[in-house]
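Job type: complex structure
Entries:
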Amino acid sequence: MAQTAVPSTPAGERPAPVRIPLRQVLPWAVFAAVLGLVLIYFVGAEQGATSLISGNWVHEFTHDGRHLLGFPCH
Amino acid sequence: MMRTLLVRGMLAGLAAAALALLVAWLYGEPQVEHAIAFEEAHAAHEGHGGHEDEVVSRTVQKTAGLITALGVYGVALGGLFAIAFAVAYGRVGAFGARATAALVALGGFVAVELVPFLKYPPTPPAVGNPDTIGGRTALYFGMVALGVLSVVAAVLVFRRLLPKLGAWNAAIATTAGFAVVLALVYRLTPKPDAVADGFPATVLWDFRIASLGVQVVLWATLGLVFGVLAEHSFQRRPSPAAMAA
């Protein structure tokens, strides 16, 4: 129970959560947002409303996931 | 610290996708099959010659295709979840890692799933006019964006009202305001839904409930698993602020 690793915390009190500085979060946020949105686009919308790759293989391959995750499919 | 959280977010997302996959197979796939059977009977009746050319077979669609789609979606969602958690931790209140993760999961579910679900619910195969797919996709993602914005706004408003009204009344006022905004948006946005004549209502209902179930399991698992993983990483390194990225 005792958080001996945090010296500034008074005994018997739960340590207040230490915020992660936004400046530290930002580059990772940009990275995760770009990567995550591209991935979600390919699962959810490619070769549906818009199409970067010709054909409909991506659409057909992710077909069931697209329907069950709730994306408009066709 | 952020690197650890991001990796753990993606792992939690993968675990969540695995459980969601079970729900999709047990409850979703039977409804997809019913819908496709209806679609093919309908096409045969209209004289389209029945079967279209299959680019990907049904077997691949419901195994490798579904696994890939859910896995990729889970990893992507887990990464974004880790970022949302990193911003929320210590800022939404004096909650520990597990409680913060659970709250972020609840907020994320409402923003990304529930808000769009209530206006633009998922549709099984054979439901929806292919000519309106562009508009429907734009409306759907617009509703996701609105869900995210309105949940973030609700959190900020709640924090502002908290000292004046106390937790109970601030929560009621915020929820009521959230509901009024949503009710107005739902009333004003168009609904280009096209359910084919004779499509079984039970299949439509069961499909939508199954889809909601997939998302509930996905978000719940993500929040709970990530909470545990994040707490462990904080215990190993007690001061995240002191750690360099």
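Summary: The longest helix of chain B spans residues 133-188. Chain B has a mean pLDDT of 91.
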